[in-house]
Amino acid sequence: MSILNKLFSYNEDYKYKVWKIFGIRFSIVKKYKAKKVNIYEKIKKHNIISFDIFDTLLIRPYVKPTDLFLHIEKLYKIKGFHKNRILAEKSARGKYIDNEEITLNQIYEGIDEKYKRFKEIEIELEERILTTHKENKEIYDYALRIGKKIIIVSDMYLPKEVIEKILIKNNYTNYYKLYLSSELNLTKASGNLYKYIIDDLKVAPSSIMHIGDNYHSDFENARLYGIDAFFIEKIIDIFLKSNIRAEKLLHKDKNNIGFSIMLGLSAFSCFNKNKNENKENNYWRNFGFIYGGPAVFSYMNWLKKQIIKDNINEILFVARDGYSLKKVFDIIKPEYIKTHYIYAPRIIYYLIALDFKYYNLGDSVKSVLEYYKDKDEYLQKHTPKITSATQGYKFILNNIEIYKNLAKQEYQNYKEYIEKFNINKDNIGIVDTGSLFKTSQKIISLFLGKENIIGYYWILFKNKYYKSNQYKAKSFEKEVKSKISDWNLIEFLITSSESPIKNIVDSKPVYSIPSKYEEKRMEIYECISERIVEFSKIAKNCFWELETFIGNEGVTNWLNILINNPSDNDKKYFKSLRAYEDANHKDKAVYVIQRWFIKNKGRKYYLLSFIPFLRKEKFAGGEIKYYLFSFIPILKIKIIENMRKYYLFNIFNILTIKQ
Hints:
27 strands, globular, Rossmann fold, alpha/beta
């Protein structure tokens, strides 16, 4: 039997059935057939409804509960606290082995002297970061509404008065009784707390229904004592299982508090499903929350620190990229800072400054020729249909006085628009995303003075032929290792649901006619922006003025993992979208994330040296496809996390190997 086990063995975990044959591991995803139970119908059948607290009524925005200690360590720069706090709890449980539960005081009794002061800080942080479980709060309120008696039961070392304060803060009120293991020295884990509750309430166990997230303590043990139970999975577990990219990020650094907070907050996307919306809208809502939310929040958090440091009083967010940025910044900004959403498209700088040096000569010259053609009788007759940028540039130089007069009119027109904002000319910040020539900053500087303005950018692109050090600027992205693999993704996440702007007339934007790709992007963007803002509201509510450690490097890692590991669903919804790489937003339409759809160079295998028998194509993300006679799809291989999946005819999953 032992020899057979070495040759062939079977085991099962929560995700897979796994076989080992001659040392090679094979697996298939195991689908559990769970009976669907309506929790609201179950509640009606019981007189007393019992709720667990942590990960049921309340959520910590971390991947692991102990990451709260790591957060304290980073927040207060106290090296070693995370490890020592975990060891102190373990030591206390060993010391008070006869007790079913320990208290926070007992934990801090045995901790190193230099860490003792953090007991109160730990309590304070718990009070500030614990937030309501949205869906379970609805269940709680429903039980109250139909007249059920509510009890709250928790295995927790925190003092009762702290728990009560946290529950009140999160609007959990009108419950009948609170049972805490730290107060009673009895736990759900042992089952003795359930026995105590039944005796204390003097009721039949069947009249109680308990709801919680720990399968052993909240479900199995409750039922062991005759109490009906309902298991609700932790939202962080649901999120991690449904998003393999999260596991990839954690694999980079399991003790990165920024990663933990970012993913902990992203898990709130589990609440974003709207049954009344179609699948596509739900996809974009979640995409905006999980990827756009951390990206914009981290950038705006960096901006807040910078403008306070630079003594900035007024911020101009440049359209269209500044749309979601301003919404998020207005949530977290100091009250004294004024913000504006302002139009400053590149075309206006070309029209006013007639400055074509270093710029994309073709785009800028063409834009100026087309715009001014109908503004002057001579230009209307003589403006050439250019075949090259050089030809158009020569025509402008030959008629420079006409263009200068027209430019003066545009200058006055834009000046009237700027003056509407009543901007204080001292200490101004201008916010954009990516820039090479700082064009928007140059436009505003024409009217407010470049010495008064600091530009804030996600990234400042570099060009060896062009340096604009005369314009003050700072960038969120600094290191090579924190480069976004596809910049179009950032612009897609933040660009407003407006058409490209042609000009400003009568202090109002004039929009170009959107292409079919722009129309599609505009249609979905409000879903994305709405969830970006929601992410930031949750982040602020959880942390207030606490440092969250979601920085540029963490967000870049997160977005790059997305870019390099697309799912079929991602490709499905992104396939109809395009980004424009030209200033006019008319030509050069490319996929938003190009590598998802552009395959690497393939390899052909020939039969008898001339018949193309087999073709192999390799795609980004590790996907490989084989074609018989170069066009018949016969096999697709997908590498997902630690699994290799084989699909016959690119459709039927015939084999999964767990590596």
